[in-house]
Amino acid sequence: MRTLSDLFRDFMQLGYVTDDIDAAAAFLESSLGTVECVKHFTSSLGGGPPPSGAGGPRAPFVVVDGATADEWVIDVALVNAGPTNLEIIRPVAGAVDLYRGVVRPGEPATLHHLGFRVDDFDEASAIVTASGRSWAQYGDSGAIRFGYLDMTAELGHFVEVMELDEEAARGFAHLEAASNAAQH
């Protein structure tokens, strides 16, 4: 990887935000005809510090606007349409204004980000820095290292870059398989 466009090579996700996770999931299932969404309530990454050095132990954390978040809680619904993951995020508490600021109250979902897979999040971070930018938010769930690049002024949405571990990759593959099985 050498340029920002290299971060866009492996598209995997349309990310949406909502103020009602159940209504948003019902919309995808009934209006768009997806299989049942997998929901995760009160997903939290706040409170932990980022790792102090490369190769250190991984622990969940999130940094928002350059500061480690003490509290960061969201609800998430996930479903696939073939290889494309549809993610819906409901901001719940803490440093989640990155999501909250885009929600259209009462609407089932609003486009927030496009998500792309990378093999090496550190390499992606170096490209972001070399381009004169910084992550609006980045973190590690334990299974996914991720960062959001604010491209709202230029493109109208955020770009999420994700490095998946084997467990996370299997989870997304399972969502794709469930979507594909429904087509037969």
Features:
10-stranded mixed sheet; 184 residues; globular
List the helices and strands and how they pair.
Layout (H helix, E strand, L loop, with lengths): L10 E7 L3 H11 L6 E7 L16 E4 L2 E2 L3 E10 L2 E11 L2 H4 L9 E8 L3 H10 L6 E4 L3 E8 H4 L1 E8 L1 H17 L2
Parallel strand pairs: 1-6, 7-10
Antiparallel strand pairs: 1-7, 2-5, 3-4, 3-8, 5-6, 8-9, 9-10
Number of strands: 10
**Ends apart, CA distance between termini:** 38 Å
Helix-strand sequence: EHEEEEEHEHEEHEH
CA gyration radius, whole angstroms: 16 Å
* Overall 3D shape: globular
Biggest sheet, strands in spatial order?
A: 2-5-6-1-7-10-9-8-3-4
Low-pLDDT ranges:
none
Estimate the mean pLDDT confidence: 95
What fraction strand?
Answer: 35-45%
Number of helices: 5
- Helix % is 25-40%
> Major sheet, described briefly?
10 strands, mixed
Structural class, by secondary structure, is: alpha+beta
Give structural notes.
With 184 residues, the chain is α+β, with helices and mostly antiparallel strands. 25% of the residues lie in helices and 38% in strands. The chain has helices at residues 21-31, 97-100, 121-130, 152-155, 166-182, and strands at 11-17, 38-44, 61-64, 67-68, 72-81, 84-94, 110-117, 137-140, 144-151, 157-164. The mean pLDDT is 95.
